[in-house]
Amino acid sequence: MKRNLLARIALYAGLTIAALTFIYPFLWMASSTFKPPAEVGSLALIPHDITLDNYRTMWARAPFGRALVNSIFVATTITLSVLVFGSMTAYAMARLNFRGRPALNAATIAVLLIPGQLTLIPLYTLMVELGWVDSYTALIVPYLFNPTAILMLRQFFLQIPQSLIDSARMDGMSEPRILFTIFWPLSKPVLSIVAIFTFMGAWNEVLWPLLVVREQNLMTLPQLLTVFALGGGAGSVGVSLASAMVLVVPVVVAYAFLQRNFIESMAGSGIKG
Amino acid sequence: MPSVSFEHVRKAFGDATVVEDFDLTVADGELLVLVGGSGSGKSTILRMVAGLEEVTSGSIKIDDRDVTALPPRERDVAMVFQDYGLYPHMSVRENLSLGLRLRKIARQEIDRRVTWAAGMLGLAPLLDRKPKQLSGGQRQRVAMGRAMVREPKVFLFDEPLSNLDASLRAQMRIEIGGLQRRLNTTTIYVTHDQVEAMTLGDRIVVLADGRIQQIGRPIELYRAPINRFVAGFIGTPPMNFVDGGLREEDGEVFFRAEGMSIRVPHENAATSKAAESLTLGIRPEDLRLNASTTRAEGGPAGDAFTGRVVLVERLGGTSHVHFDVVGGSRMMASVLNDRLPDVGETISVGVPPDRVHLFAADGRSISNSASLPS
Amino acid sequence: MRAEQKSGSLMAAPYGVFLLVFAVYPIAFALVLVFLQWDLVTAPAFAGADNVRLLVHDGRFWRAVANTFVFLSIHVPLQIVTALGLALALNRQLAGRSFWRAAFFLPVVISGAVVAILWSNLYATDVGLINRVLVKLGASPVPWLTDPRTAMPAIAVMVTWKNVGFYVIIYLAGLQYIPRSCQEAIEIEGASAWQRFRYLTMPSLLPQHILVVTLSTINGFQLFIEPYVMTGGGPLRRTYSVVLYLYNNAFAYQKMGYAATIGVALALIIGAVIFVQRRVIGRAEAL
Predict the structure, then answer these.
(1) Using CA atoms, how far apart are residues C4 and A96, in angstroms rounded to an integer?
(2) Is C205 inside a domain boundary?
(3) The whole model's pTM is what?
(4) What CATH number matches the domain at B2-233, 3.30.70.20, 3.90.1150.10, 3.40.50.300, 3.50.50.60?
(5) Cβ of B83 under 8 Å from any chain A Cβ?
């Protein structure tokens, strides 16, 4: 019994240390943004002199407000498109017979097997040739469809009974109407999974914006953050971390409320993708 | 006026033909049952009427209007599905009314029809529930209600009772029959269960491999099956079959097989007097069991043979006696419980000649003795 | 049905076009670019096998490939050990399991750019948190990101830290798949905790091991934002990654043909490494 108790104490102690390893750096980051430069190096989480100077400086030196709007706009547009157009595609691929369906299925799986680095440069030159560089179009259009999302939605749609489609057709519904009024209400779990990983992917993406956007006012948050930190614009640790907070806080807030969905979503998409 | 007519309807998926030359007219108000095993094409035919499946060739008319190329919503038919096809996220009321709302029918009329159908089906207290909160029988009623409120020209039932347990199935079968007679709406009913077919159908169409085997009133199929398939398919417990041949002796015709020699009516075998190989069929309920008799050996007794009992299944009202024909095949008799033989006992099995069916090697019936009741 | 055909084609057509433009065309054009010299300003010129020849003899490219293998040799084993360890801990009767799980998963949802900036500060030689702790414990500070010997391992540890929560979830799913009856059977046979781990848990998790190895390897080859933000590829090019080199060729040097050639080579190397890994794991399983 005694040995058992000791083992449990050790287990919880180990877990606590592990959890701190993952959480403490973020807490330290958050607290550092409220510290004056002299204090930033300290391990303490509660600042002696709380200051908002880091945020003021960060906000004044680079268009973070604009970047926040850009990021929200780009990630939201992409997510809506992946949900709406992606589920239309997935519905057709799962439940409608049409010529070219097998080819589309095969192509989708093949695309997922190709590493993104292979197509990065040709996609970039395509943006240059289309004149899309430095535009929202370049940030959004290449992400309007997501093959992983389509496969996940298709898999889910395949399990919905045929009789629901038949009933809806007898009731006189068109195919898009069946999708949005019958399939969507039944697909909330998979839709939320797709929404989260699509939004997170778009929100955190940095390599693509670095390639196709140079105009500061069009930059997304992670891009501006990177450019700001690298260009020495921050000037101090506190300011640079404060700019990172703009990117992190919305995600952490959402994660706090929806952590189960986040974990399911991001783990699920990673395994499929 | 014919309500639904099929004209040489054929359906193929790629190279595989699943329905071949389906040609039939369903009368107004009739309940027609399509019965067959899986792969017989019965559901495909129903789905072609509904417009859920395309007709490869031929045409389908509803009330003399060619609907072959029309989408489901323009055909004025309603369908009840095996797994009900109820929208899980909608209440019973919404499920019942959706089809009417989509057809832009007036609010009051929708309410009237929903109330009417709910009243008839006993669904009134359940209108605000979701399908998940209903029992199997209740879901079945909602599915029927959804078809009823449409007030269609034709009802289509696709194995509506298959997902119910046995006692509920018997009850719902009676309800469907009663409802159909009351509404007097033309109905096509698909099932694999021949009991449903026999009890519900005004007429039955037996299907196998996409082809019509026989069309007729239930009693016709039972008394005069046109081939061995129909004979084996219709009737529970299933008909006994014995392979053998015919022989003429002293002006009489006998069916001969290992362990038995049965006299068959003369006119029966008139066409095939030769001793070709054929099959005798006799329903379990037509066999007569007698206590073991010491029958004179050798001579053709003509209306009985001997068997040894291997199993007696007591069902209550009747019992199934399984026995081996001496030197021959296993057969089964369905008898009343008055006097049951014991396992191992030797019994004499009587065969009324007018109940004997004979089938040629290709399965065609060659008897016409099993005449219909007038 | 005809109507179904029509709806199906209409609903799938936009995606079909998308695939053609943003997947099929780029893949095909990547192979074309390998034979072109193009700075996006002047017209592209046919370059024959120049790009390929250059790549074969390009010390920087091979340096980047070698760096990646250094990264993988630390990252992959460390990722398996930490993820498996945490998953085993979480797989017990535990209070607040979802809290622990959420804590481990937290870095996964955070942008790689943020993590890189944060860890630049944690690793900083003079004021970095890690060195402060070391000094408090009486050790001397380590120039983590400026010493060529420690820079790549430091990045590998950081990436492992960022992703471990993801792999914990994978292992947890695998552990929950081991039938209870198997665990009870091996306990009844009197196996020690180590024997249970060795003869039941490890072999049962083979699919998860394969997944973790494959995904963390692909992830390693895609290393970009970490060296870009933290080291710029230095010191002594010891953290230069293949994607960083590809990015610089396209963005800084405007050599589209060569950058695309690097992309194609990288895809081939990833394919080859995954193939070899599968063979090795397959053989190990057969033993």
Answers:
(1) 6
(2) yes
(3) 0.88
(4) 3.40.50.300
(5) yes
